[in-house]
Every structure is written in C-alpha cells, then in structure tokens.
Amino acid sequence: MPAVDDPDPVLATGSRLLPVLPLDDACLFPGASLVLLVDKPAALSAVRLAERSGGELLVLGYRESHGGPRDLHPVGTVAEVRSVHAIAPLEHRVELDGVSRVHVETLLGADVLVAETVPMGEGDAGDEWGPAVEALARYLHAHAELRGFLEKQRRSAEPMSWVNLACQHLPIAASARQKLLEASAPERCLKISRGLDALLRKEQTA
After folding, report:
1. Are 176 and 166 in contact (CB under 8 A)?
2. pLDDT per residue over 126-170, tens digit each?
3. Is residue 75 within 8 Å of 104, Cβ to Cβ?
4. Distance between CA atoms of 175 and 83, rounded to whole angstroms?
5. Which of 68, 76, 160, 170 is the most exposed place for a label (fewest CB within 10 A)?
6. Is 199 exposed, middle or buried (0-12, 13-18, 19+ CB in 10 A)?
7. What gap in Å lies between CA 44 and CA 19, rounded to an integer?
8. 16-119: which CATH topology?
C-alpha cells in the first residue's frame, strides 16, 4: 500500500478520503458498534477530523507484525462517530457505529493517516444465511448474557447484522476476526455457522 505525497490525488470512481483510526486486536463490522478509550494524540486527532468532515472515519486493524504506523490491514470498516466524551485531558471515550466495508487503495499522511478507500460489495448471503443464524441461536441459547449484550449492540435491521455482531464479539483471535471481515457475506455466514457450532461443542465437552 504505497504512500502518495500528492495532497490532492485524483480519486477513482466511488472512492473516498477518510481519516484512519488504527486499532490493536480489535475489529469493527458493519451494523455493529464499538466503544473505545482513545488516549493517543494521533488517534484523537483522527476522531476530531472525522467530526469536522462528515462524521465518518475508517477503522483499520494493525497487522500481527505491527512494524510501524502504516502496517495496517488493507480491508477495514467505515464508521460513524456516534459520540465522543472526555474522561481526562488525554483520554476520550469514543463510540462508533460500523457502516460498510472498504478496501484501502492508498494511505496518506504521517502521524494522522488519511486513506483513499473504495467500497467492497458484501454479496448475497442467500442460503448460507439461514444456517448461520440457526447456529447463532443455538450458541446464544447457552449464553443468555451474550444475547442481551448483542441486542444492545445491534445498530442495523439488516439480517446480516446478527452475523456481523457474532463475528465481532466471539472469543477468537484478532487475525481470525480480520479474515471474517475480509470475507464476503456468503463466506462469512458459512465460516460463522461452522465456527459457532464447533465452539459450542468445545464448551460443552470442557
């Protein structure tokens, strides 16, 4: 993902420039929400820039190698900045709502990054959606507290939002969560249905 020094690049059709909020060990999916404690000046500057320029930013996760501020995954989620509350002079509570997945074409900037992004299609979940929701229902039946939590976190009426919420909050590695984010809706449904049933079996036999 090469840097571009030109501050006013010609954007591809449908592309957008968005301030970047990098995250460690976290992922945001469309239709879900995320609450963060932001205490790094560059990250807070990205949030403030989003507030001044339409209210949206790009949430990107660091790669496992994390070799520098630009060592980020190329797929992330456009998020609406829902609220920002100061807890201390250098610490803010930020609530984000996931909107849509995008692919990063170019990263600009030094401390505060801005990304040129292009939208990614979700694809039609089709027949894969049913088994995924059934697997989620089985898992939530055994985890009533998680069900209540997910219901509060849901920000979209779209059926896929349940699958996306499960992807975001399952007790899995950050790398696995990123792979789910990068997968199309049919792939995500298939993976989550298999993963939830396997996780439930593991918990029941532990």
Report:
1. no
2. 777 788 888 888 988 888 888 888 888 777 777 788 888 888 887
3. yes
4. 28
5. 68
6. middle
7. 11
8. 2.30.130
pTM exceeds cut of 0.85: no
Domain map (residue ranges) of the chain: 16-119, 126-205
CA distances from 58 to 8, 134, 163 (A): 19, 31, 21
Question: What DSSP character marks residue 127?
Answer: G
pLDDT digits (tens, 9 = 90+) for 52-92: 999 999 999 998 876 677 889 999 999 999 999 999 888 99
Tell me the C-alpha to C-alpha distance, in Å, between residue 51 and each of 38, 48, 101, 111, 186: 15, 5, 20, 18, 34
What's the token pair of residue 138? Answer: 């089985």
C-alpha–C-alpha distance, residues 99 and 150, integer Å: 17
